[in-house]
Amino acid sequence: MDVDTAIRTRRSHKLFDGTAVPTAMLADLVELATWAPNHKRTEPWRFSVLTADRVGLLPERIDAALADGTLPAHKATKLRQVVAGLGAAIAVSWVRTPADPERDREDYAAACCAVQNLMLAAHARGIASYWTTSGAFVGAHLRDFWQLAPNEEFVGAVLLGGAAIEMPAVRTRGVADVARWI
Ligand SMILES: Cc1cc2nc3c(=O)[nH]c(=O)nc-3n(C[C@H](O)[C@H](O)[C@H](O)COP(=O)(O)O)c2cc1C
Predict the structure, then answer these.
(1) Which of 127, 128, 136 lies closest to 156, judged by CA?
(2) Where are the beta strands (DSSP E) in the chain?
(3) Under a CB-based contact definition with an 8 Å cutoff, are residues 65 and 136 in contact?
(4) Per-residue pLDDT tens for 61-108?
(5) Which of 11, 86, 130, 165 for mutating ligand 1's site (highest number of atoms within 8 Å of CB)?
(6) Where are the domains of the chain?
(7) Fold of 3-165
(8) pTM exceeding 0.85
């Protein structure tokens, strides 16, 4: 798949069909993510990889959070549907530098670029994904689960798997709406 096609046809898929994402492919996705631009070569991204054989741990944690009230009960049905067919998940974080807000901001931006690399590379391999910042997946109560170091913060979790449904492509703004030509 060429880059233009990958960019245009990648969609956020929020229902998965149970297809396991091979561990070797997850390693490739992480490696490709690390080719994202980053200012001053800080390489601020970190990846917590939940392989296909361990993906059942995430629904367990979500069930526990629903049971103890950390997550509101009205979200239960949707969350259980989302995690039911997961093929893998990767939480992406970045190493914080609170004492240097400009660097911290740029490092967050670089980690976001890494997420997009990861999702495009997954798409090119026929694997669906979506980026979530929901507390259900990257709440503070899940820092230990994802093994975050104390100086890291979540950028989000990328949920991965086979697409269970097609998602519509929605963009309401064209080039003329978003670009100024100087
Ligand atoms: C930073 C970021 C955070 C997101 N967090 C969530 C989320 O928590 N829950 C969710 O359902 N979708 C989340 N999304 C996905 C978007 O809401 C949306 O579904 C998606 O961008 C749709 O467009 P696409 O198919 O072109 O990706 C997030 C996207 C981004 C970029």
Answers:
(1) 136
(2) 45-50, 88-95, 128-132, 152-161
(3) yes
(4) 888 888 888 888 888 888 888 898 999 999 999 999 999 999 999 999
(5) 130
(6) 3-165
(7) NADH Oxidase (3.40.109)
(8) yes
